Write the C-alpha cells for this entry.
Amino acid sequence: MTQKINPNSIPHGIALLQNPLLNKGTAFTEVERDALGLRGLLPPHVQTQDEQVARFLENMRRLADPLDKFMALSSLHDRNEALFFRVVCDNLDEIMPLIYTPTVGLACQRFGHIFQRHRGMFISINDRGRIADILKNWPHKAGIIVVTDGERILGLGDQGANGMGIPVGKLSLYTACAGIDPAICLPITLDMGTNNETLLADPYYVGLRRHRVTGATYDELVDEFITAAREVFPNVIIQFEDFANHNAFRLLERYRDKICTFNDDIQGTAAVALSAMLSALRLKGTRLVDEKFLFLGAGEAATGIADLLVAAMVAEGVEPEQARLRCWLVDSKGLVVQSRAGLAAQKLPYAHPHAEVGDFLTAVTTLQPTALIGVAAVGGAFTTEVLEAMAAINPQPIIFALSNPTSKAECTAEEAYHDTKGHALFACGSPFPPVQCCGKTMVPRQGNNSYIFPGLGLGAIACGATRITDEMFLAAAKTLAAYVTPADLQQGSLLPPLSSVREVSVHIAVAVAEVIFERGLATRSRPENLMELVRAHVYDPHYPSYM
Ligand code: NAD
C-alpha cells in the first residue's frame, strides 16, 4: 500500500527537488507537480520509479570501473534516497560490493579526490568543548550513529578522516538489509589526526594535517562525543566501527554497560560466525561443547567469536571455564598459552596451560581441533598440509577462512574442498564462486556481518533499547541459523542466500526485541505483537504519495 504524506508537511518547489529524503525526480505525478509548485521544473513525461531504476542501472552498468560505479551510486544517494535504496534493495548481490567492501575501501583511500558533497558529520579534535552544539547542526533526529576514528579501515590501516566512507556505507546497509529509515541514520567521523604520511602530504586530503592524538586527549574527546550524542539524540544507538584494536576493546568495555552501543567488528562478526558454526553442527549432529575451536588470529574478530561461542555454550548449560577450554588462539607469536608474558586482556581467558607452540601446523597436529577459524588476515595460512591434517583428524573438518579481502583469505573455497576430499564444512569472509568437488557442486557462503547488524539495529530501534547485550547477538545468530534450509546444507551452504537478508532481518529484529523486553531494556511498553511493532519501523523505498 502506498504511504501517504501530507503535502502541507513538506517543502514545495525547488526545495522539494533538492531534498534527497523527499525527492522523486521525474516520478512526481501530474497532480503532485501542480500541488507542490513543481510545474515546469521537471521534463513533462512522468516516469515510474521502476523506469527510473532501469535507467540508472543502464547508465551505471556502462561504467567499467567499480569506483566510477561507486560515485554514480553516491550521486544518486545524494539526490534521491528512495530511488537509491530501490536500486540497492532490488540488486543487493550486484550493488553491495560497490557500496561496501571491496569498493568502499578504494573509495576511502581516494576519498578526498572523489569528494562530491557532504554526508554525515565530521567532529575533530579541534572541536573539544563544543561537540553538543555541533551535533545540533544535524537537521534530523538521529536514531543510530555509526562512528569511526578512521584508524583501522577494513584491512587498509589508518585512513584518517577519509574513513568516512565506512560509516556512510554501513548505514546504507542498515537501510538496504533491514529497512532502517535513512532519515534517522547519522554517519560520524572523529578526526583525531592521522599517522598516514601519504594522506598528510596529499593536498586533497579532507582531514586535519596532524598526527593522531592519543591517551587522555583521545579518551576525553570520545567521552565528550558520547555524552553530547546522548544529550542531543536521547536513546541513540552508537555503533563503533573500524577503530584500531588498542581502542576498540577498551571503548567497548568502557561504554557497553552504560549506553546503547556495540562494536560490529567484534560482536557482529561473532554472531555471523556462530550462526555458520551452528549450521555446521547441524550437518555433523554435534553440540558446540563437542568441538575444539582453533583460531588463527587473536584480535577483534577472533576474541569476539570466541566470547560468543563461550556464551552460547554457557546458555546450553556448560560451565564457563569448560567452555573457554574448547577455544584456542594462535597469534603472530604462536599459540596463546598461560606461560606467555604480556598478553592483551582479551586473550587471557583463552591462555590455557600448554607448552608453547610456534607454528600453526604443529598447533593443529598437537591440539587436534575439530574446527579452524581463520581471522588473522594472513593469506594462504591454511596450507594443503594444514587442510590435509584437519581431514586426517576429522571426518567433517570445519574450516572457516574469514579474513578479508580475498587476497587475505586463509584458503580459497576450492582449496578447502579439494584438500579435504569434499568433506570440509566451509564458510568464508570473502565471496567465492561454487566449487565442483567429488561429483558435487558446493556453494560456499560469505560470513557477511550484514546478515546480523541491520536486523539487530532494527529490533533495538523498534523497542527503544537502552543496551545492546551479547544475549541479543546470540538470539540474532540463532535466528539467522534457523533460516538455513536443508537444501542449503545439502550444497554445503552454512548461511542463507544474501538475497533473503531483508526478510531474515525482520525475524532477527523480533528475536532481539524478545530479549530486550524480557530483560527490561526497552523504553516503550511491550505490544502484543512484536512482528507488527518491528514491521512498523521498516522503511519502504517505494515512493510515497504526497496527495
Ligand atoms: P585484528 O588486527 O584485531 O587481529 C588480527 C590478529 O591476527 C591479531 O591477533 C594478530 O596477532 C594476528 N596475526 C597477525 N599475523 C599473524 C600470523 N602470521 N599468524 C597468526 N596470527 C597473526 O583484526 P580483526 O578485526 O580481528 O580482523 C582480522 C581479519 O578478519 C581481517 O582480515 C578482517 O577482514 C577479517 N574479518 C572478517 C569478518 C567476516 O568475515 N565477517 C569480520 C571481521 C573481520
Notes: Residues 155, 245, 265, 269, 272, 296-302, 330-332, 375-378, 402-404, 408, 429, 447-449 surround nicotinamide-adenine-dinucleotide (CB under 6 Å). DSSP finds 24 helices and 14 strands in the chain. The chain has a mean pLDDT of 97. The first strand starts at residue 121 and ends at 124.
